[in-house]
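Need a sequence for this fold. Nothing fancy.
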């Protein structure tokens, strides 16, 4: 496995940082990504579609699942700060320690470290969330993806929801049906550029 594989990048190995400018929900975010982290130097198309097809959530306990360098969760936290909303916290989680490092650095540079923190699954512990937002790592394979979702979706509070973007050609429609069959009724919020934006509810 190469050192640039974004599922396991080690922050102790020297890596190159790359700036990213994200236009999200009417705000401009200056972020830093890095080698060995998903979507180095850019906001990937799926995440862009997710932002375009949604509105930011109301303040609550939000999980940014597979956070990467933090763009989804940081956009949420920054939106709350921009609107002067005191409540709300975002937790980013990623198995990639380098991504966790960058996400926390970005939170500090954006001035939202008081409401955003990232960690590995082991560091997060057992918490519950009002909403989960994610561009999930589809390429880890169907079995691993299903295991990932069944690990985190049950942490939604009753009535909570997950908002995810998935490529149609990577199984977005079949994932919608599978999630519904697992007891998380799932509908499509939007579709663009070959991506589905899905909303799953915990009854």
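Here you go.
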């Amino acid at each position: 496995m190469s050192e640039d594989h974004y599922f396991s990048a080690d922050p102790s190995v020297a890596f190159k940082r790359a700036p990213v400018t994200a236009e999200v929900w009417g705000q401009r975010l200056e972020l830093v990504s890095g080698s060995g982290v998903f979507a180095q130097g850019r906001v990937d198309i799926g995440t862009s579609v997710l932002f375009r097809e949604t509105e930011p959530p109301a303040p609550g306990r939000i999980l940014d699942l597979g956070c990467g360098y933090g763009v989804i969760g940081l956009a949420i936290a920054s939106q709350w700060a921009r609107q002067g909303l005191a409540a709300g916290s975002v937790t980013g989680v990623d198995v990639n320690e380098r991504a966790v490092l960058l996400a926390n650095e970005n939170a500090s540079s954006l001035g939202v470290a008081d409401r955003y923190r990232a960690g590995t699954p082991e560091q997060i512990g057992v918490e519950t969330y009002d909403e989960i937002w994610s561009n999930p790592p589809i390429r880890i394979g169907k079995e691993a993806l299903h295991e990932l979702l069944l690990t985190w979706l049950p942490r939604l509070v009753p009535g909570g929801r997950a908002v995810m973007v998935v490529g149609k050609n990577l199984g977005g429609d079949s994932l919608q049906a599978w999630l519904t069959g697992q007891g998380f009724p799932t509908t499509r919020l939007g579709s663009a550029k070959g991506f589905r934006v899905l909303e799953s509810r915990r009854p």
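For context: Residues 1-6 have pLDDT under 50 and may be disordered.
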